[in-house]
Amino acid sequence: MSGRVRENMPDYKKDKKRVDGRKMDELRPLSIKVGVIPNADGSAYLEWGQNKVYAAVYGPREALPKHTQNPLKANIKVTYRMATFSVPERKQPRPNRRDMEISKVLGEALDKAVFTEQFPNTEIAVFVEVIDSNAGSRVACLTAASCAMADAGIPMKDMVAATGVGKAFGELIVDLNKDEEDAFDAVDIPFAILPNTKEIVLLQMDGLLKKSEWSEIAKLGYVACEKIYEIQKKALSEKYQLSEVSQKLIEDKSVSKSGEKDSAKIKKESKGKAKKVRK
Amino acid sequence: MSKKVVIPGELISAERKRLGSNVFVSGGKIYSKVLGISEDESEKASVVPLEGRYSPQQDDVVIGVVTRAIFAGYNININSFVESFIPKSAMRDDLKVGDLVSAKVEYVNELREADLGFARRMYGGEVIEVSPVRTPRLIGKSGSMLELLKQGTGCDIIIGKNGRVWARNGNIELLKKIVLFINDNSFKSNLTNSVEEFFKAEGIPVSAPKKDAIRVNNFVEESEVIVNDLEESELLN
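Above: the input entities. Below: the structure tokens describing the complete assembly.
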């Protein structure tokens, strides 16, 4: 479609900069906070560019109705929902084809990460709610959901880190926004991996791509997912960091203790001497 | 410090070690299964979880609530994935829906269903709900924390491993405050000392429990000091 040229159309090959000023492999600002919903077993709130997502995890709990139970593993039941005000035009609140599809693929991606066989006959219910969206909401949901699952204490092989990768305005890019997703040559690929094993757990594609371009894009995706994994890691461990005041108290203590340690060392040395004497 | 927070899938050790709880081996390396705290200097690779649901283990003391009474027996909610059943023949007194029961888990099958034994009805008292993975901190090393709580509040306390703390008599309001304090700060070290200070701030005199019990709970540095002391006493003898 490159023959169709419009005025004022960005050209990334020439501009070396994206419409929102990012570099080609730069993510939108991402922040995650875990443990935001007290009634849930685990929860997370994520802001990724303009995307705002809540994720809540309940369970493992008894799967009901009983015929849904699997005596060999736990079911992971994801409910993806978009708030009516999350998009420019009001979204019908009833779950549509897209919502059901996203729920299904997110559940399958999380299933790869969880030790489901530890919890027979149970279900793990994950609810993701999109409050505001601007392209890439399914990867935002997956990133948030995996944080919420870890926060719920569910045994997992690994976290799931996800990002959008693809092509727009003639250049391969990471984390597309809405303008880029609507580009004339747009290719949007939601891409999710388990960072340890580099296993791909979610991969969909919109648009057309050359084989050589795909191998380039995959490389970009792995690098971006590593960055996201680091942010997830920080968000989860931050919840259990000591407050600044008590941290300082402990440091003060350790300072005074190190003084004691020195004296202990001296003692030890003297003991060594004593032992030698004894021998 | 040797303790650190690990997330699921984080590397615990690249060496061969004895396997403890909440870890798995992949490609010869040991990884964490859950969000928790690991000690990298210990000989055993294990993770103490920070969050999670109760899954019954043999010999756990649990506190249950009767949810259904039928002719044959009672359904008991023990905060697990499935409810447990106690036949009427195993109970001395009749139960009603909503009654509290303390029991011991006698057997857990492969579907994680628990058989309960030694069930007793509990009269009066209150139940405080906490996170099941944090109950060990309420008990403390060799029961030091529990001893402190009993001393400070004058309550009769039973701590169910399923995250329910039953208490009767004494200053229950104060106990609630402290139990929730411990629940919120379970990942910090030196909890017994801070709870002692908590009591002192309330104006309640508590004497520290057994010396060795506190020392075990403290930082690594202090245990080193103990070792040094021991060596010294050996020398003297």
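Note for the figure: Chain A touches chain B through 46 residues (CB under 8 Å).
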